[in-house]
Amino acid sequence: MQTKFLLDESQMPKYWYNLQADFPEPLPAVLHPGTRQPVSPSDLEPLFPVSLIEQEMTTEREVEIPEPVQDVYRLWRPAPMFRAHRLEKALGTPARIFYKYEGVSPAGSHKPNSAIPQAFYNREAGTRRLTTETGAGQWGTSLSFAGSLFDLDVTVFQVRVSYNQKPYRRAVMETYGANCVASPSELTAFGRKVLAEDPNHTGSLGIAISEAVELAVQDPNTKYALGSVLNHVLLHQTVIGLESMQQMEMADCWPDVIVGCTGGGSNFAGLAFPFMGHALRGGEKSRIVAVEPSACPTLTRGKYAYDYGDTAHMTPLTKMHTLGSDFTPPGFHAGGLRYHGMAPMVSYAKELGLFDAVSYTQRECFEAGVLFARSEGIVPAPEANHAVKGAIDEALRCKLEGKDEVILFNLSGHGHFDMAAYTSYFAGELSDHEYDEQELAMALSGLPSVSL
Ligand SMILES: Cc1ncc(COP(=O)(O)O)c(C=O)c1O
Question: Taking every annotated instance into account, which residue ranges of this chain make up the domain Tryptophan synthase beta chain-like PALP (predicted)?
Fold first, then answer.
């Protein structure tokens, strides 16, 4: 009974895969926040180096992974894929469950897959400092790690609720040499405005992004880095799916079902896009399921519309599933899933019917994560618990239907910095937020009008 499916370093992908090449129609245009007309590459230059802007816009199917990036990836990649024999047994399911484990990276999640190339391209372009936001702390940690390797200063705005919940994430960022600030902060005009209105504001990813962008646009040597959502971030994450395809072949099977959790969409896309592209080019088709929290139900209850990526409305407008850029999700424990929007490429794939989306409350996700930990040994990040829950439900469906389907899910990170959340769960202190229609309508009423 083989448990681990391991690739040799020589089998690590040399190219990232771009789903844009296989979309039947191009993605809807990205719009300038002021003119609301399509942006040109130069509009994005205050924020990103030219090489990343090119990756944002390219429709080439394969983008070469630079050797210095591959060299860092080799610290933990190829990442292992496991067969969850003990979880299958605990569930009594005939399904075969596999998981790709991204928690083996130095930061503990999939996030360095994009942090490393973003730091590399910025370094090449002469950038001295990067600013960014972080929710759970996983992305901030990853960019801090990447900054330390490529000699860049990093300033991280961490959503205040996570900053307070997870002091050790901040300590790790500082160990890598970064400066971690609770957002909203006094460092930016936007942060000061939010605090003036509500000194106890718990923050949101949308606010943290506005603060990071504000600092970047003020200084030509400072650029901004985003941990999810953008096309180039999703592109970098496809190493996950490309490796998994080889590992499924090693296991002599192909996934009937693929499951990933979605915050901004990057780990889900990383696993699923190479399989979606394979099917779009006439290969085997897998059923793909995105899992999101009921308290921030972007894909299942949001609207597919043009919206801002941040709360201060400084970012370009993209067409995506959104709950409205003013939406502040409740302070539940999967901080990395508390974003009002969804990656435009993931949103577009949803509109094309390339995958299904479901939502779960946090308590049922923790319950799934605890069962996983007790059978497989790894304590998942609260975000990843959503994928675990999705995979378990698929396996239970297989049990009911008597089917031995192959299920592959992305275990996007470990939860070693999230133990306070587990402690609250065991103490019965977690509540499930109900998100009512009125709240949803309110949040969506502020969407910008766009005449495209
Ligand atoms: C472990 C983990 N999984 C998932 C996510 C969600 O982000 P994304 O949808 O971009 O993968 C995060 C975000 O912080 C995370 O830390």
Answer: 75-413
pLDDT at 329: 78
| pTM (two decimals) | 0.97
Q: Note the residue count of the chain.
A: 452
pLDDT digits (tens, 9 = 90+) for 70-118: 999 999 999 999 999 999 999 999 999 999 999 999 999 999 999 999 9
Task: State in Å: Cα 383 to ligand 1 middle.
Answer: 6
Q: Is 451 exposed, middle or buried (CB count within 10 Å of its CB: 0-12, 13-18, 19+)?
A: exposed
* Residue owning the nearest CA to atom 5 of ligand 1: 336
Structure tokens at 153: 């200063």
d(CA 6, CA 351): 35
Mean pLDDT of 180-189: 97
Q: What is the per-residue pLDDT across 331-348, written as a single tens digit (0 to 9) for each?
A: 777 878 888 999 999 999
Q: Atom 1 (ligand 1): residue with closest C-alpha?
A: 413
